[in-house]
Structures are given as structure tokens and as C-alpha cells.
């Protein structure tokens, strides 16, 4: 499905702050599974996601999605195959536009944008149905501007828009981190429903170990650009993960 | 009465400029300062073609088409060369000053001896028809798939890229359209006043912004009142206010200062007076002010 091969990435090359974050890094992501990536700040989680999505260039290596090396493609070219939800609920939507307009845009993803009218009445029913399945009451607010929605509603809409065209790969970049615990729980539950309905291969970054175990099929812990742990979620416990974290921290202090 | 009609006519010419400025400042959220170069650019292009024997309608249309190149220049400077949009606009404007002088080889071109688009009927009616037609075309365009991408690019570029689209393309398109309209406005102004002059661009940036700001002040919360209509109403009110000021005995040379005062007064009303009288907070809260429109952040 997704193969990352011999990936290398350094920052601040040639300065005293040079960091060789990834050095011939390899990773295999299985189809239709949700893989959670955890790790402390600076371990390379977000950089890895950014490199896969194309918003951060790689130094060398290959990123192979469905047998095709996408590492030379531009971000927007990769976006046709890759959906993404960001930590900031405003990044995945256009806040000045209405829910209907946002969904109509997302529905055209990967197609040619021409001079036809974007909003077509015949699609409203379809969108209402999709929103109804979300269960947040958004189906009655099709003409509400997204900036008037709450963070949780906005993030759920972002998720829906990213997943709507069934991308080959979905990247969730700490997508519940900016939400309060209750809303975060709701959005996580919606995420799980959506992923199992749409069967989308997913990589999820999380700082919340409980969520990572509960909602993913596989857990990978990164440490300084290397895989420190790679297990099936049902085989790990929160305590085990915390113990590894603690050991790494002590190692750093020592 | 004559004063009102003259102000209205000039207001309508500047309404086209206002609609152009809206595309960059409000829709894309970028400051394009090349306006003061593009406006006379349109006038000089018109003068060149009409003096070469072209029909005035074709010459005006050519002013629009070539005006888009100014937008292409500014957007290329800031997208490809990563120059800040404000500086990119200023650079284009500076370049256009020399280009404008080159087009006809002089700083002032009298046009009294040539035909103009206003020859075929009443100036006011021709302008009203033209302005409404342009407004409708822009409104319709913004409802198309491409138009929505232009709006979304100004609102959230990340989303546009995630749709598999190069957002820079839409910035270039917005800048080109805007500068085309501004050049068109300049071409009409030169026909209206009977000459193209190198100084005619001075201060038009303020006129454009004033139109938007005045337009925004009226019926703030009404989402049916589109940006394009706001530019038209704003530009006409602005010109009529200037006309009244001259009628009251101020010299035409005072106009630039009056322009700035009108802008200051409307911004002060928006930013300070509403708070002083508690209007904004008492009603539906500040947030609702932006319901239908996006205010220009910098102001």
C-alpha cells in the first residue's frame, strides 16, 4: 500500500544546529488499516506526515503509494490520492463559505474545475445524507457559513471532506488535539465509524496514547527518526507505552 | 443637478476600478498597489489604439486585455520570485510609469479629436449598462467552480491545494482580472475627460479602497448585498461627496485631501464610533458584522 524506503531528511544543513532526523528510514503501511504514530515532540511524526503529503521535501529515498513513487510529485498532485485532516480545524475547510459550498468543492476533488455552476441542487440530498450519517445535525445547516460552527463540528466536516472521495490514504495530523476532551472523544468516534465504513488506509498521529490504542490497528512509536516500537494495538497497553516513554526520557536526561 | 450627474458618471467609472480592487483586496486578501500604474496604463493603451485608427470599443477592450498583463507581472513577482505582494505591486507600478510614457511617447495625450464609446448615446446610460453588465458577469463567475476556487484561495489556500489544485494559478487569475478591470476603468476615464495623462493614476488607490470601505459600511449584515454592489454604491457615494465638497467652495486641488478625509471618516465610523455608541456589541455581536462580507483586515 504505502512504502517508505530509504528516506533521509536533515534540517539546518551546514549549521551547528544540523539535525539528521531521518536516516535511511523504512516503513510499510498496510491497506485498509489504521496505523497510529506516537512519540515525543521532535521525534519526526509530523515531518514524516508532511513528507508523505508533500508539504516538506525529502532529501533522498522513495515514497511509494500503490506501486507508484510519489516523492517527485507536487503537494497538490499527491492530494488527489491523499486526504488530510490538520490539527487546526480551520485548515481543512473554507471558513468563509457555507457547508454546502465546502462539500461541493470537496466533491470535485481531483476533477477539472471549469465554468459550470458549482452548486447543483441535485446534489443536496446526497450531502444531507452524508451529513446525517455524521449525526451532528449539520444536515439542517447546509447554508451556514463554516466559521459559525464549533471546533468539533468544523473538524468533523474537515474529516468528512477529506474522506469524501475515498482517498487511497488518509493522514490525520493530531486532528483532535485542539478540541476539548469531550468533543475530541466524539470526533474520534466519528473518525472510527467513517474509517470502517469507507475502508480507508489511515495514518494517525496522536499524543493521546489511550486514543491511539483504542482507535488504531497498529501502533508505531518514533524516536529521533527511528522506529522504537511497532506492535498491533491489541498487543500493547497504555502502561507499556508510558514505561517506554519514561525510559527514553531518562536516557535523554542521563 | 449637473454636479450630481457628473459625480454619478465618474462614480460609475470608478465602480469598475472598485470591483477590480475587491478581487485582490477582499476576495484574495492580497494588497495590490499597482493600481496607480494600471489605471493610466489602460488610458494610454486606449489612446494608442484609438489614435492608430482602431474603433473606440475595440481600443477599450484592448485596454482590458493588456491591463491583465500588469496583474500577471505583479503576481509573477510575488509567486515566482517570492517578493512580498505589497512590494511587488509597487515595483509593477513604478515600471508602468515608464512604460506609460513610452506607449505614446508623451505624458499627455489629448483625445478630443477621436471617437469614444460615449459617442453613441447618453454617457450616464452607457455607463450604467456597462457597470451592471460587469457586475453580473463577476457575480456569475464567482458562482462557478473556478470562481469558488478563487474565493477559497483567498480564504484558505491549504484547502485549495488539498483539492488537488495549484492555488497560485488562481491568485494569478484574480490579479489579472482585477488589473484588467482597473485598466478598463482608466480607458473609460480618459474618454470621459478627453485626455490620457500620466498623473491620472495618483490617488486612485484611495478611491478604490474608499469605495470598498464606504460600500462595507452600508447594510453591513446583509448577505444579499454583494461585494460588487458595494463597490458600485461606495464609488458613487464617494464621488458625490467629493462633488458636494467642491460645490461648497473647496478648490479642485483640495480633492485629494478630501478623499483621504472621507476614507478616514468612514473607517473611524466603522472602528470607533460603533463601539462608542455600543451599536456593534448590543446588536448581534461583532462577529456578525462579517456575515456576508469579509472586511479588509489591514484597516
Helix and strand arrangement:
The complex is a heterodimer of chains A (254) and B (299).
Chain A: E1 2-11, E2 19-29, E3 34-38, H1 45-53, E4 60-65, E5 68-69, H2 75-79, E6 82-85, H3 99-107, H4 121-134, H5 151-163, E7 169-173, H6 181-198, E8 201-205, H7 209-215, E9 218-223, E10 226-232, H8 238-253
Parallel strand pairs in A: 3-8, 3-9, 6-7, 7-8
Antiparallel strand pairs in A: 1-2, 1-4, 4-5, 9-10
Helix pairs in contact in A: 5-6
Chain B: H1 2-27, H2 35-51, H3 56-79, H4 85-104, E1 108-110, H5 123-142, H6 145-155, H7 157-162, H8 167-193, E2 195-197, H9 204-217, H10 227-247, H11 255-276, H12 279-282
Helix pairs in contact in B: 1-5, 1-8, 1-9, 1-10, 2-3, 2-4, 2-8, 3-4, 3-8, 6-8, 9-10, 9-11, 10-11
Q: Any overview of this molecule?
A:
- The complex is a heterodimer of chains A (254) and B (299).
- Chain A is α/β, with parallel strands linked by helices.
- Chain A has eight helices and ten strands.
- Chain A has helices at 45-53, 75-79, 99-107, 121-134, 151-163, 181-198, 209-215, 238-253, and strands spanning 2-11, 19-29, 34-38, 60-65, 68-69, 82-85, 169-173, 201-205, 218-223, 226-232.
- Chain A has a six-stranded mixed beta sheet with strand order 6-7-8-3-9-10, with helices on both faces.
- In chain A, a hairpin with a 2-residue loop joins β4 (60-65) and β5 (68-69).
- In chain A, α5 runs parallel beside α6 (181-198).
- Chain B has one domain (2-290): ABC transporter involved in vitamin B12 uptake, BtuC.
- Chain B starts with a helix and ends in a 17-residue tail after the last helix.
- Chain A binds chain B through residues 74-77, 79-80, 83-84, 86, 90-97, 101, 104-106, 108-110, 113-119, 145, 147-148, 162, and chain B through 141, 143-149, 151-152, 155-156, 158-159, 161-167, 287, 290-291, 294.
Using the CA coordinates, give the radius of gyration of chain A.
19 Å
**Element-level helix/strand string of chain B:** HHHHEHHHHEHHHH
* Proportion of residues in helical segments of chain A: 25-40%
Count of helical stretches of chain A: 8
Order of helices and strands of chain A: EEEHEEHEHHHEHEHEEH
Distance between the termini of chain A: 40 Å
Q: Compute the CA-based radius of gyration of chain B.
A: 19 Å
Read across the widest sheet of chain A, the strand sequence of neighbours is 6-7-8-3-9-10
For the sheet with most strands of chain B, the description reads: 2 strands, antiparallel
Proportion of residues in extended strands of chain B: under 5%
Helix content of chain B: over 70%
| Largest beta sheet: strand ordering of chain B | 1-2
CATH class of chain A: Alpha Beta
Indicate the overall shape of chain A: globular
CATH topology of chain B: ABC transporter involved in vitamin B12 uptake, BtuC
CATH architecture of chain B: Orthogonal Bundle
Domains of chain A, number: 1
- Proper CATH architecture of chain A: 3-Layer(aba) Sandwich
Strands of chain A, count: 10
Label the structural class of chain B. mainly alpha
Biggest interface between chains: A-B, 35 and 25 residues
Amino acid at each position: 500500500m504505502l512504502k517508505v524506503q530509504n528516506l533521509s531528511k536533515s534540517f539546518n544543513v551546514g549549521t551547528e544546529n544540523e539535525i539528521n532526523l531521518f536516516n535511511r528510514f523504512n516503513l510499510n503501511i498496510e491497506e485498509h488499516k489504521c496505523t497510529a504514530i506516537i512519540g515525543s515532540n521532535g521525534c519526526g511524526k509530523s515531518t514524516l506526515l508532511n513528507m508523505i503529503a508533500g508539504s516538506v521535501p525529502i532529501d533522498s529515498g522513495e515514497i511509494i503509494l500503490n506501486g507508484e513513487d510519489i516523492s517527485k510529485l507536487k503537494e497538490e498532485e499527491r492530494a488527489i490520492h491523499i486526504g488530510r485532516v490538520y490539527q487546526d480545524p480551520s485548515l481543512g475547510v473554507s471558513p468563509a463559505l457555507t457547508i454546502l459550498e465546502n462539500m461541493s468543492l470537496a466533491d470535485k476533488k481531483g476533477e477539472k474545475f471549469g465554468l459550470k455552476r458549482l452548486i447543483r441542487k441535485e446534489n443536496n440530498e446526497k450531502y444531507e445524507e452524508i451529513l446525517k450519517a455524521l449525526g451532528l445535525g449539520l444536515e439542517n445547516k447546509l447554508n451556514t457559513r463554516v466559521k459559525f460552527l464549533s471546533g468539533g463540528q468544523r473538524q468533523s466536516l474537515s474529516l468528512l471532506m477529506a474522506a469524501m472521495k475515498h482517498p487511497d490514504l488518509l493522514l490525520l495530523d493530531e486532528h483532535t488535539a485542539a478540541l476539548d476532551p469531550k468533543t475530541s472523544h466524539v470526533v474520534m468516534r466519528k473518525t472510527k465509524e467513517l474509517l470502517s465504513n469507507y475502508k480507508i488506509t489511515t495514518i494517525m498521529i496522536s499524543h493521546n496514547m489511550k486514543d491511539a490504542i483504542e482507535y488504531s490497528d497498529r501502533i508505531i512509536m518514533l524516536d529521533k527518526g527511528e522506529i522504537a516500537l511497532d506492535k498491533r494495538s491489541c498487543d500493547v497497553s497504555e502502561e507499556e507505552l508510558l514505561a517506554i516513554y519514561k525510559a527514553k526520557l531518562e536516557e535523554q536526561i542521563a | 443637478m449637473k454636479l450630481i450627474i457628473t459625480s454619478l458618471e465618474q462614480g460609475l467609472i470608478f465602480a469598475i476600478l472598485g470591483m477590480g480592487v475587491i478581487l485582490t483586496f477582499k476576495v484574495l486578501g492580497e494588497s495590490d498597489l499597482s493600481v496607480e500604474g494600471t489605471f493610466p496604463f489602460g488610458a494610454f493603451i486606449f489612446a494608442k489604439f484609438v489614435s492608430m485608427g482602431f474603433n473606440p470599443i475595440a481600443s477599450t477592450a484592448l485596454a482590458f486585455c493588456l491591463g491583465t498583463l500588469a496583474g500577471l507581472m505583479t503576481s509573477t513577482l510575488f509567486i515566482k520570485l517570492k517578493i512580498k505582494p505589497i512590494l511587488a505591486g509597487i515595483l509593477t507600478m513604478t515600471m508602468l510609469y515608464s512604460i506609460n510614457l513610452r506607449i505614446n511617447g508623451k505624458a499627455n495625450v489629448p483625445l478630443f479629436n477621436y471617437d469614444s464609446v460615449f459617442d453613441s448615446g447618453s454617457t450616464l446610460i452607457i455607463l450604467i449598462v456597462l457597470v451592471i453588465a460587469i457586475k453580473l458577469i463577476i457575480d456569475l463567475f464567482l458562482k462557478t467552480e473556478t470562481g469558488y476556487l478563487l474565493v477559497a484561495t483567498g480564504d484558505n489556500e491549504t484547502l485549495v491545494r488539498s483539492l488537488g489544485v495549484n492555488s497560485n494559478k488562481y491568485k494569478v487569475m484574480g490579479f489579472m482580472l482585477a488589473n484588467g478591470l482597473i485598466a478598463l476603468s482608466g480607458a473609460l476615464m480618459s474618454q470621459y475627460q478627453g485626455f490620457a495623462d500620466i498623473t491620472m493614476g495618483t490617488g486612485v488607490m484611495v478611491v478604490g479602497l474608499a469605495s470598498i470601505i464606504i460600500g462595507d459600511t452600508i447594510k453591513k449584515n446583509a448577505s444579499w448585498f454583494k461585494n460588487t454592489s458595494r463597490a458600485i454604491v461606495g464609488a458613487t457615494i464617494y464621488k458625490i461627496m467629493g462633488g458636494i465638497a467642491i460645490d461648497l467652495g473647496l478648490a479642485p486641488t483640495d480633492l485629494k485631501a478630501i478623499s483621504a478625509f472621507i476614507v478616514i471618516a468612514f473607517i473611524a465610523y466603522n472602528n470607533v464610533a460603533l463601539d462608542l455608541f455600543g451599536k456593534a456589541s448590543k446588536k448581534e455581536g461583532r462577529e456578525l458584522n462579517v456575515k456576508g462580507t469579509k472586511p479588509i483586515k489591514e484597516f
